[in-house]
Specification:
Layout: E1 2-7, H1 11-20, E2 26-32, H2 91-104, E3 111-112, E4 115-125, E5 128-137, E6 142-148, E7 150-153, E8 175-178, E9 192-196, H3 200-209, E10 215-219, E11 234-237, E12 240-244, E13 247-250, E14 255-257, E15 260-263, E16 281-283, E17 286-288, E18 290-291, E19 295-296, E20 302-304, H4 313-328, H5 337-353, H6 368-379, H7 386-401, E21 411-413, E22 419-421
Parallel strand pairs: 1-2, 1-7, 2-3, 7-20, 8-15, 9-10, 9-15, 10-11
Antiparallel strand pairs: 4-5, 5-6, 12-13, 13-14, 16-17, 18-19, 21-22
Helix pairs in contact: 1-4, 4-6
Cofactor: FAD
Signal peptide: 1-17
Protein name: Flavin-containing monooxygenase
């Protein structure tokens, strides 16, 4: 009978606990959550920087955030988001949905809130590998170490800002901030704002800021230029190559005066609690070695849920967890560590040959359907319906080319393969 530790009570951790709690081969499930509530990145707080315990604020949620994918593909396979007249929901609705999910599956009693994981370390046991996990109860200040058979790492990857190396950034005369610390647009009133990065949050926030800023420059290197019609005070620019005083110099040689450099440059995978003996290395945002972007090749009794991005996240978490639990209960066997490593190295080469950079090691997007099929075929886990990927691709295209109004669209899933949008 297995004792399992789940690190994090966001969507991935809740999903892991939901499946583990009904698994006959599991005797104990402890969910360790640093915050005082569940929900992970979906929790909104006005606070930025550090919390009352001196730990970095985890959430990157801004006040006005609405989902950038329709709710019809944001639920879990066995627990869809409740019906409503909108497809794109505010963050508070998604947080309420996660609370509903946790309550429905009786996960909440197993969560140890305000518990900060300090160290995860493998050790040899009489019948194979075990894990020592040290954590601190932030309410009492007391630390303890417990032994587990399996570890599910579910700490998310939207919490540690990636700061690009732009010459002159450190000496920039104006304000510099990362979207991790963005909450409301009013701080940019009357300012000339340079937004660096046109991922989902960059595009979204840039548009929101045009309502108060004097001017917004959106600097990016998207190969497919967005066809969205932006407000008059918003201008697209190529990559910024240098900052000099208050001047931004762009790749095309043009220059603009700016008051604020606003970095919407994404996040770094960060597992500060993993001892080096865990064998997980993060370089250029590539987490390795992982089999199927999930299983720790060096120590297969650890999995890292939710590493891939540009996915139907909650459904993917569910499939990853079901895949891994089936390896725990003997429904299928994982390959040997040598075979898993060979598979990972081969996948990296294949991705590189198709033009993915090392930083995009875990980017799925158009590849997500194949990834889901792989997990399902290998493990015998029930597959995810193809309609999820179809809606994801449809919505993502509209996000790029119809940013100001795409959230008015409504989706309806007709069956496992077809949908309508109206």
């Amino acid at each position: 009978m297995a004792r399992v530790c789940v690190i994090g009570a966001g969507a991935a951790g809740l999903c892991a606990a939901r499946h583990l709690l009904v698994e006959p081969c599991v005797s104990q499930v402890d969910v360790l959550e640093q915050a005082a509530q569940l929900g992970g990145t979906w929790v909104y707080t006005e606070t930025v920087g550090y919390d009352d315990f001196g730990l970095p604020i985890h959430t990157s949620m801004y006040k006005s955030l609405r989902t950038n994918l329709p709710k019809e593909i944001m639920g879990f396979p066995d627990f869809p988001v409740p019906e409503s007249d909108k497809s794109y929901l505010p963050a508070k609705d998604m947080l309420a949905f996660l609370q509903l999910y946790a309550d429905k599956h009786n996960v909440t009693p197993y969560i140890k809130f305000k518990h900060h994981v300090q160290l995860v370390k493998p050790k040899a046991g009489p019948n194979g590998e075990l894990w020592d996990i040290s954590y601190k109860d932030l309410s009492t200040g007391v630390s303890e170490t417990r032994e587990y058979d399996y570890v599910f790492v579910c700490n998310g990857h939207y919490n540690t800002p990636f700061i690009p190396n732009i010459p002159g950034l450190k000496e920039f005369k104006g304000d510099v901030m990362h979207s991790h610390d963005y909450r409301v647009p009013e701080i940019f009133t009357g300012k000339r704002v340079l937004v660096v990065g046109a991922g989902p949050s960059g595009m979204d926030i840039a548009l929101e800021v045009t309502g108060v800023a004097q001017r917004v420059l959106l600097s990016h290197h998207l190969t497919e230029k967005p066809r969205s019609v932006f407000p008059e005070n918003m201008l697209q620019k190529p990559d910024v190559v240098q900052l000099d005083g208050n001047t931004a110099v762009f790749k095309d040689g043009t220059e603009e005066e700016v008051d604020v450099v606003f970095l919407c440059t994404g996040y770094l995978y960060n597992f500060p609690f993993l001892h080096e003996s865990c064998g997980i290395v993060v370089e250029e945002n590539c987490v390795e070695p992982l089999y199927k972007h999930l299983v720790n090749v060096r120590h297969p009794s650890m999995c890292l849920v939710g590493v891939p991005y540009y996915v139907c996240a909650f459904s993917m978490f569910d499939l990853q967890v079901r895949y891994y639990v089936r390896s725990m209960n003997g429904s299928f066997r994982l390959p040997s560590s040598e075979e898993m490593l060979r598979h990972w190295e081969q996948e990296k080469l294949q991705r590189a040959a198709r033009g993915y950079t090392r930083r995009q090691a875990h980017m799925m997007g158009p590849d997500q359907g194949g990834y889901y099929s792989d997990l399902s075929h290998e493990s015998g886990a029930a597959p995810l319906p193809a309609v999820l990927t179809a809606v994801h691709n449809d919505s993502s295209g509209k996000f790029l080319h119809n940013l100001p109004s795409y959230r008015r669209d409504r989706y309806r899933l007709l069956d496992d393969n077809n949908f309508i949008c109206y």
